[in-house]
Amino acid sequence: MANQQTSLDTVFHALADPTRRAVIGRLLGGAAPVKRLAEPFAMGLPAFMKHLSVLETSGLIRSEKAGRVRTCHLNADRLAAAEDWLSEQRAVWQGRTDRLAAFVESQNPPTK
Asked: Are 59 and 75 in contact (CB under 8 A)?
């Protein structure tokens, strides 16, 4: 359980940055070379590579090098794990708000 929590921590840490979220969004359309992923961002390649390193550490992406080209791939399983956690939290809070709404309605019945 603690290992899974640490794993989710690294995923949410990676997703906390807008640059990294944009990279994930781009990779949802398919694998891409690092140079192409870096083009939309106004930062040097070393700074961009730090973002990729965070994404790789979290397991959200993996990369492979062929010759001089490093290509990044999305790890959809890691993204699905974060989505599963969010869905669980949504269900818990939805149940709580539903019970609160029922309680409020029971205290203030509609007048006719």
From this structure: yes
What is the Cα 21 distance to its own chain's centre?
A: 7
What distance in Å separates the CA atoms of residue 64 and residue 30, rounded to the nearest whole number? Answer: 14
As beta bridge partners, residue 69 has 66
- Report the predicted TM-score, pTM, of the whole model to 2 decimal places: 0.79
Contact between 59 and 78 under an 8 Å Cβ cutoff? The reply is: yes
Q: How far apart are CA 91 and CA 20, in angstroms?
A: 27
Residues 27 and 72: beta-carbon distance below 8 Å: yes
**Per-residue pLDDT tens over the stretch 39-93:** 999 999 999 999 999 999 999 999 999 999 999 999 999 999 999 999 999 999 9
Inter-residue contact 31 to 76 (CB < 8 Å)? no
User: What is each CA distance from 43 to 27, 34, 55, 74, in whole angstroms?
Assistant: 19, 13, 17, 22
Q: Give the list of residues 6+ apart from residue 112 with CB closer than 8 angstroms, or none.
A: none
Structure tokens at 33: 């070379």
